[in-house]
Design goal:
The protein is mainly β and 632 residues long. Helices cover 3% and strands 47% of the residues. The strands form eleven sheets. The chain has a five-stranded antiparallel sheet with strand order 1-37-36-39-40, with no helix packed on it. The longest helix is centred in the N-terminal third of the chain and has 21 residues, at 6-26. The protein is globular. It starts with a strand and ends with a strand.
């Protein structure tokens, strides 16, 4: 309880200033701002590849790479703190000592919620293992780690961090896929097996689901020597290996080259996008995209997905790399256009795809036309403080056997805002599989110098700066359509205040509901769950003023606006004995139906509702908006 109203506002502004000062100070140190002299991270070797980077919760990054060692094609790790200082020596840490294959079966790496790195690999005897390494370099499960899948597996690896320090692990023996949850202490949950007697089930990808995980996998049969008859499915599982969402077809049967696998990325709200490039439709390569919601249901009607670019029989549209707009949850793709005849042309495009398959930018936006000079390693990353994203790529220079590394910043409409050269040394580079994505306002890209065998990296800010990063003033996306009314609650046979709003479609921690009693000038701040879009409470008679904000990890939004443009609601709560009961049959048109958690349902038909408690928002015979709570 806070006396007066402006004290919370003052504290909110003060909180933002403190956050900005603290984070700005914390990122100053070893990251350089000179593209001719990037930050050295570790010694490896000129053949090192499969370079992966993942952000830690404190702003640092873990880096994994693989190279030929005495025990085979072996992974190593380095931890780099938020300032760009390597923590595990010039050589990094060797992940494992057992014998490994002399070729890559596909390694994986992820960072857990308790800020440790997990490395997953296949040993020479075709078993999957995971090693956990903490920031201090300790290995709580031993240097060799833990065997997964009861010894099954032997092919590609995938990892996804859980919400409790554990993680999901997925492997395959190229016929079946195996899914297992590993607890934070290293204990194993029950394994799930995904198989089909008629087809192989492999190449799985993992996406966070409500109360579990989605596995996106292919079912395929070999067609001839080098092609698969391939379909892509999704199914959901909980941590105990039980299937909680049914197997659903996402992309229909196509005959696809063996080397072309699918990709998947979470949309940030429980579903995901899936895409792949192939030449099975019309004989010319294009990138095909689909989407499924938080129930695993496809939301794009085309059975083979939509193309990132209109089909052009003179061109290929391939090598796509994704990110997600955290505001709209659209898919952002960067991809290459090349000529179909010789694949010697290099143009870079970006495009935006919605969950319903719409493309607001049509056939995309041209970022670069580099003629016949190569452009490789294209990456796209949404900002975490500003609206917009960056594109990073390795650009070949005419007459030189090597590449510079370039970056561009774009606003959310695809307008270029800045250009930055991250590395202008043109030595040949082994390119990282990914970037860290923006975390604490900086993105990290890592590569290997293929001449001297050094591992190097560079940070990048949302303004295109390097080294000492300038923290942007955050984009505070507030809730919208803030409305409220005094209603009759059929569940409790009592009156109360019902508030509704539209989510800002952004990943938030919670809502802050400011309620001021105008009769005694007291204010209370009520924390509301991030998934809610309504709130009901019973109050004594009085006059109340409500304001609503969204709370983000480092800042709080402005107040939500009502449909008429004000940032507050005034609701009069009369003595309930003097108010006649509001009958539900006064509503003649339903606007929205909410469940008890305040989430909008995908139906306005009461007959489709199962038993439970619901909130109905609708228009009455008199033309006013009314909100009631009912039980069915």
């Amino acid at each position: 309880m806070v006396n007066g109203y402006y004290f919370p506002l003052l504290m909110k502004k003060l909180h933002l200033i403190i956050i900005a000062l603290t984070v700005t100070f914390s990122v100053k140190a070893q990251w350089v701002d000179n593209p001719a002299s990037n930050t050295f991270l570790a010694n490896c070797s000129s053949d090192a590849s499969e370079i992966r980077v993942a952000a830690s919760s404190d702003g640092g990054v873990f880096v994994q790479w693989a190279s030929m060692s005495s025990n085979g094609w072996s992974p190593k790790l380095q931890y780099v703190d938020v300032s760009g200082v390597p923590q595990w020596g010039d050589e990094g840490i060797a992940v494992t000592t057992p014998n490994l294959a002399t070729w890559s079966p596909g390694y994986a790496m992820a960072v857990t919620s308790d800020n440790a790195v997990i490395s997953m690999f296949r040993t020479a005897d075709a078993h999957h293992w995971v090693v956990k390494i903490c920031e201090d370099g300790s290995t709580p499960w031993g240097t060799d780690g833990i065997m997964l899948f009861n010894g099954a597996g032997g092919g590609r690896s995938e990892l996804l961090a859980g919400d409790d320090g554990g993680f999901w692990a997925l492997g395959t023996d190229m016929d079946d896929s195996f899914l297992q949850y590993v607890n934070a202490d290293g204990s194993l949950r029950t394994m799930a097996t995904i198989n089909d007697p008629e087809k192989k089930c492999s190449n799985g990808k993992l996406i966070t689901a409500d109360n579990g995980v989605f596995v996106v996998y292919s079912k395929h049969t070999l067609q001839g020597y080098s092609y698969y008859n391939k379909e892509i499915y999704v199914a959901g599982y909980n941590k105990d290996g039980e299937q909680i969402y049914p197997e659903t077809l996402l992309l229909g049967l196509q005959t696809i080259g063996v080397s072309y696998i699918h990709h998947a990325i979470s949309d940030g709200i429980g579903g995901g996008y899936v895409f792949q490039w192939h030449n099975a439709i019309g004989g010319v390569y294009n990138t095909y995209i689909t989407h499924f919601d938080n129930n695993g249901t496809p939301t794009i009607s085309e059975p083979n997905g939509i193309t990132v670019h209109s089909t052009d029989y003179e061109s290929f549209y391939i090598n796509a790399y994704p990110s997600i707009d955290p505001v709209t949850h659209d898919l952002l793709l960067v991809y290459r256009q090349t000529d179909a005849a010789s694949q010697s042309q290099y143009k870079i495009f970006i495009n935006r795809i919605t969950s319903s398959g719409e493309k607001p930018w049509g056939d995309g936006i041209l970022v670069l036309d580099n003629g016949t000079n190569q452009c490789l390693g294209m990456r796209i990353d949404a900002f975490n403080y500003l609206d917009g994203f960056s594109v990073i790529y390795h650009k070949a220079v005419p007459g030189v056997y090597g590449q510079t590394i370039e970056a561009h910043g774009f606003d959310s409409d695809g307008n270029m805002q800045w250009n930055t050269t991250l590395c202008d040394n043109t030595y040949p580079k082994n390119i990282g599989e990914n970037t860290s994505g923006f975390n604490n306002a900086q993105n990290v890209v890592v590569w290997v110098n293929a001449e001297d065998g050094g591992l190097y990296g560079q940070n990048l800010g949302e303004y295109g700066d390097m080294g000492d990063i300038t923290i942007p003033v955050p984009c505070c996306h507030e809730p919208e359509d803030f409305e409220g009314a005094y209603i009759y609650n059929y569940e409790t046979s009592s009156y109360g205040v019902m508030l509704t709003w539209t989510s800002p479609a952004y990943s938030i921690l919670n809502y802050n509901l400011y309620r001021q009693n105008l009769d005694d000038a007291t204010t209370e701040i009520i924390e509301v769950n991030a998934t809610a879009t309504s709130y009901f409470e019973e109050l004594p008679a009085g006059t109340y003023k409500y304001r609503l904000t969204a709370q983000y990890p480092d800042f709080e939004s402005d107040f939500a606006l009502t449909p008429d443009g004000t940032d507050y609601l005034i609701i009069e709560v009369p003595d309930s004995s003097s108010v006649p009961e509001i009958e539900f049959n006064e509503i003649i048109e339903i606007i929205n139906i909410y469940n008890i958690n305040g989430q909008v349902l995908n139906t306005n038909d009461l007959n489709e509702l199962s038993q439970g408690v619901y909130i109905i928002k609708g228009v009455t015979k008199s033309g006013r908006t009314n909100i009631v709570k009912i039980s069915k």
